[in-house]
Design a protein that fits this description.
By secondary structure, the chain is α+β, with helices and mostly antiparallel strands. It is built from eight helices and 16 strands. The strands form three sheets. A seven-stranded mixed sheet has the order 3-2-1-4-5-6-7. Helix 4 links the parallel strand 4 and strand 5. Helix 1 runs parallel beside helix 6 and helix 5 packs antiparallel against helix 7. About 40% of the residues are buried.
Length: about 350
């Protein structure tokens, strides 16, 4: 059976390498996105790995890199590989009916969620944002609908309290590679491969995340913001703007935070406007907060419910720094706050 892999990026690499190891010469081609320099630019937070094309060339597997696989030229390139089965993982393009008609045995996709939850381009980030304690990988038959095909295999794993999209996706990539190989073996046996239909009542969406999505909304609950910071790592990163009297707003990337808990309950924040900053050796007295908590060294920001402690930052044009380093360079003064670039 002739296998063609379609995928781009670090999520796809373990699946491709596993297929090469398990099926050798049956892997007759790779379709991947053209090389772009986004992952190599200074300051980029996109994940980069070995490179799908590099893996293919090391294994003497032909590489096809059309701008769009759905053009007549792209479809013709795919036909030239004569695939029986397409294995897709994070390819980055929705496949047209013309593409899906090329392989004789069909197309399967390695999707990083427990479908029918989180259909779409960013299932890992949305699982963290949604407060899920578990997610996984589903191998589905690809149909013209978005991630709506019958489910062939599914595997789950726990979301750890400190997982970012990057760390969680890396573990899901390994899980998905094993499931993809198991699914290919089902097809290689020669018989029909059955799948389970998805329950439309349970469908949730995970649309593509754009760079501007990383702006922190401090009016959200503290636990959501803590998850948001993790979900935006490694890209597009969570960010906010530091507002200081008499100065232009300064963009600040927030790369690590935690929900502040005392005896199991969120503390602080009552009476403070979202985005209000307190830090240093303790909390400044406030008429809106007559009984301030005991002094704690750190940097805290008010949210819609309580406060989050920010642990690691990167001010515009600077390197990453801890809260202590940040406070040395930007000491807290009355009226300082985080928020959007233009405050309401």
């Amino acid at each position: 059976m002739r296998l063609v892999m379609m995928g781009t990026g670090t999520f796809a690499e373990p699946t491709f390498e596993t297929l090469l190891g398990a099926f050798g010469g049956d892997v007759v081609g790779l379709v991947t996105q053209p090389e772009r320099d986004a992952g190599n630019k200074r300051g980029s937070t996109r994940q980069t790995g070995k490179g799908m094309a590099n893996i293919a060339r090391s294994a003497n597997v032909p590489v096809v890199q059309p701008e769009s696989i759905n053009t007549p030229e792209g479809v013709e390139l795919l036909r030239g590989l004569k695939p029986d089965l397409l294995v897709v993982a994070a390819y980055g393009q929705i496949l047209s009916k013309d593409v899906l008609q090329v392989p004789t045995r069909g197309t399967i996709n390695v999707h990083a969620s427990l479908l029918p939850k989180y259909r779409g381009a960013a299932p890992v980030a949305y699982a963290i944002l949604g407060g899920e304690t578990q997610t996984g990988v589903t191998i589905i038959k690809v149909t013209p609908g978005l991630d709506s095909g019958d489910m062939i295999l599914q595997g789950a794993l726990d979301i750890l309290p400190d997982d970012t999209t990057g760390t969680l996706e890396a573990r899901l990539a390994t899980l998905g590679a094993g499931l993809a190989a198991e699914a290919v073996r089902k097809y290689a046996s020669g018989g029909p491969v059955e799948g389970t239909k998805q329950d439309p009542a349970l469908v949730t969406k995970a649309p593509k995340i754009k760079k501007e999505f990383g702006l922190i909304d401090w009016s959200k609950p503290a636990d959501y913001i803590e998850r948001f910071v993790r979900a935006m790592q490694p890209w597009p990163t969570a960010y906010t703007f530091l507002h200081r009297s008499g100065k232009e707003p300064m963009r600040v990337i927030v790369s690590q935070s935690k929900l502040w808990l005392l005896a199991g309950n969120p503390v602080f924040g009552a009476g403070f406007a979202p985005g209000f900053i307190s830090g240093g050796a303790g909390f400044a007295a406030s008429s809106a907060h007559r009984n301030p908590p005991p002094p704690i060294v750190g940097l805290f920001v008010a949210t819609g419910t309580s406060m989050v402690e920010l642990l690691e930052f990167q001010p515009a044009g600077k390197k990453k720094m801890t809260a202590e380093e940040f406070l040395r360079g930007y000491p807290i003064i009355e009226g300082m706050r985080f928020g959007p670039e233009v405050l309401e």
